């Protein structure tokens, strides 16, 4: 079997099964595990998959920076954001992550809502300037320009006195066995810390991020109570997540 044929078969297996195991691939192709591992390394370098111990997972396509992602407005993204905004109750303290869907969430919060929004995203804070009854608490730190959020020791320290009702989290990867992930190490630490300071974590995810993984793990699927997805997300993608105990809301 040619290298190109093996790689095509690997991508097909990833799309079908959600993961591949190097030993099983080697047996199926009749080649050594070293050959399969080389294929996986090359494919990972091309951004086609995410390598993990013993095999690989589908790679998250969410690699564009904030400005590029913000230019991609979709009805599905707005629906996810609107459904999440409707979960915020009167008088609650909520943490809102960075990201373009979370910016949409902020836009959908009712102008008369009385609540407190804690965020490490300047973009979220700016969206809420004209909401007279929403108190905005901005977490400072080093600005991670790719996502326009603050990260680092100062941001983590600022969280120590906060106890929120909800945390709305954005991710780049959602996978039943690999959990939630993102493409930056410090962002992963920050998201994990934000989740630890909220009673419940709600994850907002477009369908292209489900059954995919990025380089840095945030936590297991069980860290979230709710996953808000696009209405037309295939059940084959969401059923394993629901089986893991997450409530799936279709927007």
TrEMBL record:
The keyword Nucleotidyltransferase does not apply. It comes from Caballeronia telluris. Pfam families: DeoRC (PF00455), HTH_DeoR (PF08220). This is DeoR family transcriptional regulator. It comes from the Bacteria. SUPFAM superfamilies: NagB/RpiA/CoA transferase-like (SSF100950), Winged helix' DNA-binding domain (SSF46785). GO terms for molecular function: DNA binding; DNA-binding transcription factor activity. Residues 3-58 form the HTH deoR-type domain.
């Amino acid at each position: 079997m040619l290298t190109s044929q093996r790689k095509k078969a690997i991508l097909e297996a990833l799309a079908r099964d959600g993961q591949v195991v190097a030993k099983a691939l080697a047996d199926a192709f009749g080649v050594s595990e070293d050959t399969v591992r080389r294929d996986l390394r090359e494919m990972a370098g091309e951004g086609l998959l995410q390598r993990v111990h013993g095999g690989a997972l589908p790679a998250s396509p969410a690699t564009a920076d904030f400005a590029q992602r913000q230019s991609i407005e979709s009805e599905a993204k707005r629906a996810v954001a609107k459904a999440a905004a409707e979960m915020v109750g009167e008088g609650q303290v909520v943490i809102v992550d960075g990201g373009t869907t979370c910016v949409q969430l902020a836009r959908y919060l009712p102008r008369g809502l009385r609540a407190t929004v804690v965020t490490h995203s300047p973009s979220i804070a700016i969206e809420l300037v004209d909401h007279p009854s929403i108190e905005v608490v901005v977490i400072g730190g080093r600005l991670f320009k790719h996502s326009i959020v603050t990260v680092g020791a100062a941001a983590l320290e600022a969280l120590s006195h906060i106890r929120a009702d909800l945390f709305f989290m954005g991710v780049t990867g959602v996978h039943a066995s690999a959990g939630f992930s993102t493409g930056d190490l410090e962002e992963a630490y920050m998201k994990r810390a934000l989740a630890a300071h909220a009673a419940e974590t709600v994850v907002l995810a477009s369908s292209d991020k489900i059954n995919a993984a990025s380089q840095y793990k945030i936590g297991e699927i069980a860290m979230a109570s709710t996953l808000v997805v696009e209405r037309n997300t295939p059940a084959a993608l969401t059923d394993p997540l629901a089986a893991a105990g997450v409530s799936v809301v279709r927007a």
